[in-house]
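Friendly challenge for the regulars: who can give me the structure tokens for this chain first? No prize, just bragging rights.
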Amino acid sequence: MDPIAASDNMDEIRPPRRGLLIRSGIVGLVVAIVTVLSVGQYAAAQGDDDDIEAGRFEPRKVSPSTEPATTDPTTTTLAPTTTTTIPALIQPAAIALPPVPGGSVGQGARAAEIMGYEARLVELHFDPGPVDGVFDAKTRTAVEAFDKLMGWARDGVIDQPFVDTLATFQYPTPHMPAAEADRVEIDLDRQVIILYKGYQVALVTPTSTGNGKRFCGGSDGCQYAVTYAGKYKFDWHVNGWRTGKLGRLYNPWYFNGGIAIHGYTSVPVKPASHGCSRIPMHIAEYFGTLVYDDMTVYVVGIQAPEGGYPPDSPTGGSPGGGGGGGSAPTTPTTPPTAPPATAPPETTPPDTVAPVGPPDTTAPPVTSPPPTDPPPTTPPTEPPPATTTQPPQPPPEP
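First reply, four minutes later:
Bragging rights claimed.
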């Protein structure tokens, strides 16, 4: 073969081989690039956290909608301390009252001025009955309650010092100012009951508590008539009349075994009961609308000494016999309970209307009828005892 011709044939074959090599090289280069990129991505994925922790990269920023929730440091929140603010006792504003006609007036008197005094007593939550200018037995009980609260002679007479004080009266500080908003305070020393609703005075009434004397006739034999000081609660009551072995009680509200606050036809100015706390009949009519079961009752002051008060005691003495009481279906709590009782009404001291100050020279003094006690006040009808809040068969009286 001609060498020159062979050489020409080789040249025609080589171009295809060079093209194959070029294409193979390109494919290999692409494979290498892809491999390098894959390895780099894997390394980046493995090293992101470490790099961020070391500060070599900034954290990836994400939109708020995809940001994972963060956990705040654990904190301890203390419950706020709450204190009960006791409202101040609302004191009545001073008013002007007319002077006392004739220097003093007592039970049986009638005068326009008396109507002004009665209205002021109602405003102060002493209950004188109707505001009608008639000084009747109900007016006298309110006047006696005022006398007792002020520490004056309990004569039930309105004179000029009485009116002057009535016009500018301010309530005394409660015995239990930080106690329950609704409560009853029986003051053994003053012989008054003050009822508070929402920390404010709702009623001031005279009372007559145990005289401390020894008596017999109840279910527990002979014992002493003492209204024991302490903290109690109303736990049962009777609507209407209730008859016990020692007498009858009207609308009694029991707070210490057989000891109750109840209406009675005689409420002397001194302790006279067998342990109960008597209140006037016209106040007992609605007393149950002001109190409720479990309402707190505080009996404060010095309780009657066993054996009774000395005859000349300003607090005690002996105005007469018995008074109120009954039996309770529960065992009395400590301190022990003296048996309440009821006895025939005693006669209270006669009313006096002697002028305290000089008589008015411009007009004849107002006089009262001969001092006689009015007949005992009783409701028009005596309702039968209603269903009590306790079983209908209580055990014997204390």
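The CA atoms of residues 221 and 283 lie 32 Å apart. The two ends are 155 Å apart (CA to CA). Your move, everyone else.
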